[in-house]
Amino acid sequence: MAKRKLVGAQEGENKKKRKKQSPKIKKTQNMAEKIQSQSSDNVERPKAKWTNKTRVLVLSSRGISHRSRHLMEDLKRLMPHSKSENKMDRKDKLFVLNEMCEMKNCNKCIYFEGKKKQDLYMWISNVPRGPSAKFLVENVHTMLELKMTGNSLKGSRPILSFDKAFDRAAHHTLLKELFIQIFGTPAYHPKSQPFFDRVMSFSIADGRIYIRNYQIVEDNATLAEMGPRYVLNPIRIFEGSFGGPTLYQNPQYVSPNEHRRAIARKIGQKYKGKLDQKMARELRPDLPSYPSDPLDDVFTTAQSEEAS
Predict the structure, then answer these.
(1) What are the strands, taking DSSP E only, across the chain?
(2) CA dist 171 → 184, 237, 285 (Å)
(3) What is the reported pTM?
(4) DSSP readout, 267-305?
(5) Cα separations (Å) of 56 from 79, 83, 137, 152?
(6) Neighbour tally for 255: CB within 10 Å
């Protein structure tokens, strides 16, 4: 009973002390409890939102070469926001691509068009209102063909690097904006990685656009080329999607057919020159190539008479 009386007396004293505590001390205690409850582990951070819903439809026409097909597959690997589609028949018109993009819920499109199984054309378009651009693809080298040392993680976002020449001409500025919207991976895309470990370079030389892909090496922050590499020769820029009024036409563009025709014409001119030389040689009279002395044949005739 004595122990119970002592315990009750102590509890009463503690209650009196709590009542005597100032309101400031109570506020600090409450603040400390709130801070402990709102630790880094317990805080519910707002989830990042995927706002840029850009999707790119990547497809080709029938009749492209194996190298062109590998280039298309490499671009699909580098673009986690891309969607694939079956090959389109060459008899179909290009306006069908707008309907295909609408069915696939895509607002951008990359279309590879093959002709004569040796020429490759590349269309990039902003669906459905435009603009769109057509290029001739030259000097194609795929990832498997190059066997470079660079190797980035699948789904990582690229750093797009553009040459200063893109800001000098209006048509290059328009192409720069198209490249940013198509090749740039949207932030927080479900299939993308939340970091940058590769660089996609766009440079202009001789009126052509050179595209290279590099990996950012973590050790010393250097660049290692990973491929693919290819060159785009601009042909035309249209106001609409896969057609419409022409905004820009490259005056220095020469089609592959004209280039091959010029090479064949040069070869034909060489052959024609050889034939002309042969005809002139046949029509030329047989004249001595050097002056001769008439007395040189005196002894020759005498010897021939004795022999007879």
Answers:
(1) 56-60, 82-84, 108-115, 119-126, 132-141, 157-162, 196-205, 208-216, 223-225, 229-240, 243-249
(2) 19, 8, 64
(3) 0.73
(4) HHHHHHHHHHHHHHHHHS----SS---GGGGHHHHHHHH
(5) 8, 6, 19, 21
(6) 11
Q: Quick one: tokens of 39?
A: 């630790």
Sign of CA dihedral 272, 274, 280, 282: negative
CB 82: neighbour CB atoms within 10 A?
Answer: 22
Q: Which amino acid is at 40?
A: S
Task: Report yes or no: 96 and 68 within 8 Å, Cβ to Cβ.
Answer: no
Integer Cα distance of 184 and 160 in angstroms: 7
Tens digit of each residue's pLDDT (9 = 90 or more) over 122-141: 999 999 898 999 999 999 99
Which residues contact residue 86 at a Cβ distance below 8 angstroms, ignoring those fewer than 6 apart? Answer: 59
List Cβ neighbours of 121 (8 Å cut-off, separation of 6 or more).
112, 113, 114, 115, 134, 135, 136, 137, 235
Reference 120, options 239, 230, 246, 243; nearest CA is: 230
Burial class (CB in 10 A: 0-12, 13-18, 19+), 67: middle
The amino acid sitting at 172 is H
Q: Within its chain, how far is the Cα of 82 from the centroid? A: 13
Tell me the pLDDT tens digit for each residue of 246-285: 999 999 999 999 989 988 888 888 888 888 888 888 887 7
CA 228 to chain centre: 8
Span 48-76, pLDDT tens digits: 677 888 899 999 999 899 999 999 999 99
In whole angstroms, what is the distance from residue 60 CA to residue 115 CA?
A: 11
